[in-house]
Amino acid sequence: MKHLTFILALIVCVTFVGSVNAATVTGTITFDGTEEYTEVPARKLLDINTNEQHCITTTKGAKSEELVISKGKGIQNVVVYVRVSGQKATPLKEKPKLDQKDCRYLPHVLAVPTGTTVILTSDDPVAHNVNAHATKNEAKNLLISKKGIKFDYTLSKAEAIKLTCDVHAWMSGYIVAVDSNFYTVTGQKDEKGKFIHPDDYEKSADTGKYTIKDVAAGRARVVVWHETLGTANKTVQVPETGELKVDFKSSEFKKPKKK
Fold first, then answer.
1. How do residues 156-171 score in pLDDT, each as one tens digit?
2. What global pTM score does this model have?
C-alpha cells in the first residue's frame, strides 16, 4: 500500500512539474502599414501562361499569395517561432508534406524544425518541378512528372527556402526551417485543420492571432518571418505557467539588407 501511495505521489509530482515549466505564447500579427505601403495593398492577378487545361481551370482569377491581409488586418502566412535559451530543435518524427495542388504550392508556407525531412509531392495531373533556392541546405531541382511521385528533402540548417516551378512560372512557395520546436504559421488552417484559401482569408475578420502551446519556461526570443515584410523579434521571459502575450505589427518588420 505504501509502495502504491509513493507511485501515485510521484505521478502527481511529475505531472505538476511538467505543467508549471511550460506556458502558452500567444498574440496577434497585424498590418498597420510599411515603408512601401500606408494602406493595404491590392493583391496582383497572377500571369497564368500555359496551355494546360487543368492549370487554366484551377487558377482562373488567381491572385498573388505574397501578402494576404484580412479585413481584420491579420496577415496570413507569417511564421512565428520561439527560441528558448538552452533548447535545441528536434526533427519531426512524421514527415510533413509539401504538395502541389491546383497548380499552386500547398501549403504556401511550410514551417518545420531543423533536421526534419519534408516530402515533396504533387496531387496534380500535370508535370511540376520543385526548384528549391536554398543556400544553407541542399539546393534541389526535382521533376515531379506525375501525380503521387514523392521525394524526401532534409533541412539540416535554419533557412527560409523559396520554391518555384520552372514549368509554371507563377508558382511560388516557401519551406522555412527554424531552430525551434515551438512554432506556427498564421492564418493557415481553420478550426478543423483545413487549409484556408488566400481569397477566403482576405475576406475574413481574422486578427492575425497565433497560439504556441507548451513553450519551455525561460529567457526566449519570439521571431516572426514573412516573405515580403521581412523579420522582427522580441526578447521575452516565458513564465513557468499561464500565458504570455507578444504582439507584432507590420511596421516592426525589417527587410533583409541587400547584398
1. 999 999 999 999 999 9
2. 0.90
